[in-house]
Structures are given as structure tokens and as C-alpha cells.
Amino acid sequence: MDAGDEGIKAKWYSSVLSETVNLPGSMAENLKGDDITLKTKWTGSIYDSSYFFHPRLEKYRKPGNIKIPFWLTPAKHYTGAAWYQKDVEIPASWKDKRVVLSLEYPHSETRVWIDHVEIGTQYTFVVAQNFELPINLKPGKHTITLLIDNRIKAINVGQDSHSLTDHTQGNWNGVVGKMFLQAGSPVYFEDVQVYPDLKEKSAKVKIELKSGDHLASKGRITLSAKSFNTNNIIQVKPVTVPYQLKNGTGLLEIDLPMGDKIATWDEFDPALYRLTATLLADDGKKDEKEIQFGMREFKAVGRSFEINGRPVFLRGTVNNCEFPLTGYPSMDVAAWERIFKISKAHGLNHMRFHSWCPPEAAFIAADLTGFYLQPEGPSWANHGTSIGEGKPIDQFIYDETNRMSKNYGNYASFCMMAYGNEPRGRQVEYLTKFNNYWKAKDSRRLYTGASVGGSWPVIPNNEFMVRAGARGLDWGNKPESISNYAKQIEQFTVPFVAHEMGQYCVFPNFEEIKKYTGVYKAKNFEMFQEDLADHDMADQAKDFLMASGKLQALCYKNEIEKALRTPNYNGFQLLSLNDYPGQGTALVGVLDAFWDEKGYITAKEFKRFSNSTVPLLKVPKFVYTNNEILNASIEVAHFGQAPLVNAKISWRIKDVSGSILEKGTFDQKSLPIGNCIQIGDIRFALNSIQKATQLNLEVSINGTKFANDWNFWVYPAELPKLKTSFYYTEQLDDQARKILDEGGNVFLNVAGKVVKGKEVVQTFLPVFWNTSWFKMRPPHTLGILCDPKNPALENFPTENHSDMQWWEIVNKAQVMNLEDFPSGFRPIIQPIDTWFLNRRLALVMEAKVGKGKLLISSANLSPNLKDVPAAQQLYFSLEKYMMSEKFNPKYEVAFETVKDIFESPSKIQFNTFTKDSPDELKPKSKNN
Predict the structure, then answer these.
(1) Three-class SS of residue 784?
(2) How far is CA 801 from the centre of its chain?
(3) Cα 183 vs. chain centroid, distance in angstroms?
(4) Which end of the chain is more exposed for a tag (fewer CB within 10 A), N or C?
(5) What are phi and psi of 539, to 5 degrees?
């Protein structure tokens, strides 16, 4: 390590370095670097600095027990210069050869010496770094020395860019991909790019030739190609042309007819070819280059995407460079094939790479699996930098995207590109020029200036939009499945893709901690787990995970379906299918950071509502009374390989026991490729249902795997009037106390009157991204947990988690903070708090108070409810419970403890302490 930047002056490249590391790998993997302390200078913004100051978290700040909540914790951390050295043997047979040192994914700036001679410097986040060794290097032993520096220097892409930030685990120092010396012809292929032309059934091959020392050269180039992953191998007739180099460089364009039978590449049939380009010089020098490519055209036609002339809907996820075992991307094809196959198993066909470009292995794997990629330049030019203002980053973005195009441009999966994520600066001017540059240079993919939120300016010449603004669920109002995003996208004349859709949080899965067997540890999870135990809820962790997960899945289902039923909508990019361990810990995935399922929804279940073909339901609500009629319309979104001819679509309604109450079949209909395909209506009278019931409506396309289903609830329009013996009150008054002291029963409705817990904002929707990154921006809860077998809920059909029938009860209802309640106390209905605070909360609870029994609700439940059938039914169920012998609360609670909920604020309140990151963690400039 060269923390003091002494090595160049001291000529370390001329000395023997004393330590040993294993490469490929990172310094952290080799346990080189500094121990983690509160003073560690991380690469990344910390918005919620309460960790550094809050007394509650003091124990996690002590040496030996440092547990940070912002991201995963590496074994060691180091930013700065580090030197690597290796002795190599140059064989005599390499005489007169061009010798290249190739380093895949050094991070980030690399200087190279051979023996005592410096041969070059490269700085890139997106491709391998290749260094030419001196010509006629003598055979025998030589020493190669690398100086790798992972600091942000003159070129600042932004400290939160996923190409280098510790948020994404992390800003490593080392070389993590392939490392080799290669000897070859001094006359060689510098670049070969293949441009498919489906209409002409040919491929235009653009070739750049070079020769060392500007040697003159002439000879022949032969191009041959054949498919390699198709059922029948297609052999393309070779083409041979002459070439001539005069000044050491040359450009050729060769048309390669592909024959009458062309195998095209797409998500359904990812047929690939291997092009072999062979150079044979007249003097016997020979070079050969193999190129993987696919015959495909990915275009924007009006407001639609088309692949090979067929409409395509992008069902995507955002990849944020989460690799929790190593901290750097997988460099092998098999690991990326796993990621893409898991994504496809969930019905997806697309992946955006947020402010980073994956290694070549990812493109190879995406080609093989049939996955549409949007890699980006390695920049989030927002936090600490900007574009279009004359900074070095302006040229660097062009350099990096050119490197991406040159190295990965032939891969069929490379369909889209952006500069990066959400910039600031003179972005319209800069990104307009960026788009124009790329549209003129390479037509094989589509370009959008940047992937942005809804408040960013529109770049007018984008070929497609990746924007927020047309996403989210309007569950501040009663849930329905009729609305769409058409109004939000009507201004755009090019295809629209939703930016970072979802971001619905789920409670941490503490079973995941044991998976962190690599160089990073989930100290954040450990901290949350211990804090949960400190708040007397350790035994509820799994239940919190499963209940919040069911709500998360419900949210993703409804948002994806809303997108699929929107005309002229062309895709979404979920944030994301898997968890993001940084930015405060964003548990937004139905999969964990390892791409494994968490247990509350399977890939098969997810794929029902996120697939190439999805039946869709249009209803004005999900909660009914039995004097109503369920009127539903059925649509299909179909983006399959071909139209579905004479499709037969059937439906059935069943109860929780599986009994079918009604079923039917629509007239046969051919389904074109597109969405908003009207199928027909369902009308089901509910008057035969006499008690509160949960029903399920399933729609299937017969003879296919395509089906989808929805739960809805039916309640009696008129409930029996019970003669109650308990005292109903809306304040804990003297009468309530008297009745409790005398052994009576009290129902206390305290909706709107809570003080202890007033700071907790609950909506039906769960936490967005996480409460740390957004400094406790509401909502703060993750749905509710209850026990369906609790006798208090005997007349209120429910599972143990939030579902649509809970909306009118839960949404914007106050919660009670039970911080002073007895150990082990559990409410009947328990809101799940953000894992950063782990407050023990209640919506409905019961207790023995004095000699009596008390049931309290901070949701508005009363005998006088109207037009809220689920709330009416829940109150009725609680009434019957309180009138039964089963009403026997387990815990005794002092009257004053209960009363304090309506008088005293919570003892622990969230406080950001600073508006920005703590001063001691801010990067220091050279001037201070």
C-alpha cells in the first residue's frame, strides 16, 4: 500500500515488493487495507447521520462492535495507491511478436512498468485495460509492476455511481478479471464490428487493421460465420477480400451475405452466430479474431419498441452491481447466466445497469439467454459532480461509451445505452449532443441521454424515455384496477420505459446473515436484528419478513398490471427484483442480494403477472357487500413470439376452500401482439354469500401456461345488531376506569387521539426504498401482522398480512407505540415498523386492566360506521369476541401505562442531527 504516495518518487517499480497477494482479486479479499472505524473515508453519500450521534446506537459505534447501517461492511477498506508486481518469463518464440498485457477490470486507474520502463496509464470502469509491451522484448525473466489507484481524482463520475461506490460493495482496489500476456501478429485486427441487416439478409462488417511500427502490409481477409446454438447449424458462405496497409492503419467494410435461411435473435429464440475473421499477409503473418453476434434489429417505431419487426414490451429490473460475497461483479459467464435465467423465471426480459457497465461475461450470458440490456456509462453525475460544465467527466463519458461500443457492440443483447443516471449540470445541451453523436455513429442500439426521475428535464432527441412520473400506485385512494398511466405519458412521441418502478420495502431476512461468507459481512443486518431484540420482538422477525413480503408482492403485482394495461406504455425497470444492500439498506427485492427467493413469493407466482402474456382484470374495487354485483372486465397483454390464434379464455370464482362458485368461458378470439386486448365481461351477483368471505377470481388462457388471479372480499350489507355488555368509548374517561376497576369490559376507539406513536406515519403502502436514505420520509411501516386464528378475527376473513380488505382500516390510521408495555406483549393487529427504529406498534390490542378487560383500536372502528364494509365487519368480529368466553387477554397492563399512550410522546424520536453527512466523513479537498 502507498497511502502516502511515496512509491513513484522512491521508484518502487525498481524494487522488490515484500508482501504477497492473490490476483485476480481485491485488496479486501487479500485482507489488505485499513480496519473499519467511525473515521473510515467511505466512497458514497451518507444522508442519515443519526447513526453517528444517537445515544440508542452508541453500542454499535464502539471499537470491536462497529456495525454500520448504510451498506455491507468489508473486512478491510482502502482507497489510494497500491502496487502489484509479478515476474514473468518471455519465451524466445515470442520474438517479433506483438505482446499485450491484458487486465480485466482493474479498479480504476492503472500505471504499468515493465522492469524499469513505464509503458502506459489507463483509466476505465467499463472494459479490460490492454497495454502493449515494448517491441523485441528480450526473452527471459521480466518484472511487471502495476500501480492501481481507486481514488476519485480529476475525473469525478460521482461518489454514488455504481461503478465505484461503497453503496454497491464497493470501491475495491485490485484486478478482478482475466489477466494474461498474449503474443500475436504485428499486423492485427484492432477492431471488428458487425452490423446486421435483416432486410438485405446480410451483415456489414467494419474492420480496423493495425500494424506495429507502422509496417506496410498486404494480403487477404476471409470472413466466415456459422450459427452455434441453433437446432440446425447454419453455415454462411465465406467471403475473401484483399487488404493493404501503407501507414500502419487501414479500414475496410465487407458485406457478408448471410444466406436465405437466417436465424434471428430475440428473447424467445436467441440464435447466435460466430464470425471468424482471418488475416493472412503475403509475408506469412496471420491474425484471427472471433466475434459473437446475432442477427437482430432493435428499433423504436413511433411509440413502440420492435425486435425484428415485432412489438416488444420491456419487463426489466435494475442491476445495481450487488455482489455481496466479493464486492465486485462476477466475471464468469455461468454466474451471469444464473442471474438472467432467474430473471426470466420471474417473467422478465430486460436489465438496466444503473451507472455502470457489466463485464463481457454478462453480455455473453445475456446473448445466450435472450435478454435485452441497457448498460450505462459509469456515472451518476449528481452527488459531487455534474456534466456539461467543462469538467473532465464530459470527455470521459464519450471515452467510456466508445470503449463500451467497441468491446461489446457486437453482442445482440446490447440493445440500449444511456450516459448514466440522473445528472445535474447543463444536462439538456450535453445529453442532446451525446444522443446525436451516438445516433450518427452506431445504429445497432437505441439511445437515451440519461435514466431519470420525473423532475429531470426532457432530452428532446431521446430515442426512448426512461423516466419516473408514470409509475406508482394511488393507494391514498381506494385500490382498483382500472386506472392507468396514459395521461402521464401522452406528451412523449417515443417509447416510454418506467424508471425505477416499485421500491417497496420488506423487513430484513436475518437468516440471510449466514450467507455472507465472503469478504463482506452484513453488519447492518446484525445491527437491525439486535435492535429488534432490544425492542422485545426478536421472535417476530420471520413473521415480519413474511407478512411484509406478501404486501410487497401485492404492490409489485398491482403496479406491473397497471403498466401492462396502459396503452402506448413500453416497459418498466423495477428497482428491483433483488435487494440493494447500500444507500441505508434498501430491501426492495422479492429476491435477496444473492438472487435467492425469500420465501413469500416464488418465481412461478411472480411470473403470472409479469410475463410475455398476462390476463388482466379491471374492477373498480376489491371489497363488496352482498347486495352488490361484481362487474369485471377482462383484458390481455400479449407480447409473445407470435399472435395467439383462436385463444380460448376461461374464468372461475372460488372460495378459500376451493369450491367453485361460478365459472365461464369467453368466445374464442385471436390475440394480436400488443396490450389492451379486450376479452369480455364477468358479472357475478353476490347475494348468495351470507357471511364474510374471501373469494378468488382466476383467468386462464386454455392450453397455455398463462393465468392470473385476484382476491376480493364480500361482506354482509346488514350485520346483526348485537346486544353488547361492554362499554364503548372514544376516550379513556373516568367511566372507562370505573368499569375496568369493577371488572367490566371496555372497547376504546382512540382514532386520531394517539400521542405515543403519533410520529409514526402509516399508509397502506409500505416504506419506499428505505427510511434512512430519505431521512424518515413517510410512510414508516411495512404493513400489518396478525394471527388469522385469533378468536378476535373469527368473523373477519384474513391471512396474517395486509391485503386489499385492510386498506380502509389501515390507510392513514394512527398507530400506538407500546414502548412501556410488558415484555412479550403482542397486539391483535400489529403494524410492522421500519427496521431502523423497530418500535413495538399496535393498531388493535387487548389487555387486562384493573379487574376488567380492555380492547383498544387506533383504527377508526365503531358501531356507527357507514360505507366501509371491511371496517364494519372487523368491528363486528371484535364485538362478538368481546361478548364471548374467549375474550380473555393474556397480559396485564397498568391503567396509567395505557393512559400514557394518549398523553406522552415516544421516548425515542428520530433525529437526523445534521442536515448533511457528518463533517468528519466528508471528503477533504486539497485546499482545506
Answers:
(1) strand
(2) 24
(3) 41
(4) C
(5) -75, -5
